[in-house]
What we know:
Elements: E1 6-7, H1 9-16, H2 20-28, E2 35-37, E3 40-44, H3 45-55, E4 61-69, E5 72-77, E6 80-84, E7 90-96, E8 102-104, E9 114-125, E10 129-135, E11 139-145, H4 146-152, E12 159-164, E13 169-172
Antiparallel strand pairs: 1-3, 2-3, 4-5, 4-7, 5-6, 7-13, 8-12, 9-10, 9-12, 10-11
Helix pairs in contact: 1-2
Amino acid sequence: MQEELLYTPEELANILKLSRYTIYEMIKHGDIRAHHIGRSIRISQTQLDLYLMSTKQTENLYEAEIIADGEEKYAQIKNVRIVVSTELEGTVKVMIRPEDIILSAGTFISSARNMLKGGVTNIVAEDTSARIFLDVGIPMCARITKRSLDNMNIKKGDILYAVFKTMSVRIVK
Length: 173
């Protein structure tokens, strides 16, 4: 199991360019989750990521139920199963960064365990990138370069596959 970075409130205050008092208030009000270890408080990288993602109104943040099926574990979100690697059980939050999703016009053999088929519902072109919104049974957003958007000639209504590795799926309680 990979060790996760843990920050003190003081370290997190330096990272976020906030006061230590503000960090303690954010923890107290539940804006950011923290581990209470004895009399110490630590904030994990995952908790920081979850906070940052929630403040950005990010795409691809879901509530899921962890399901074990044989040797595989899944995050069940509505009727969609996402292959995950976690020790957690029960209800969790699942995050997939749009930049971690590859879009494909068809299936292919790869080490990526998640390949979800869906229709393009919206395209938001930006300066050098584009956000492609898919309905794969749940709304999902992928971020690709504008060049990829043009090369693939992606349009609203197209059927694409959202492909991502199990290790790209962040899970927190």
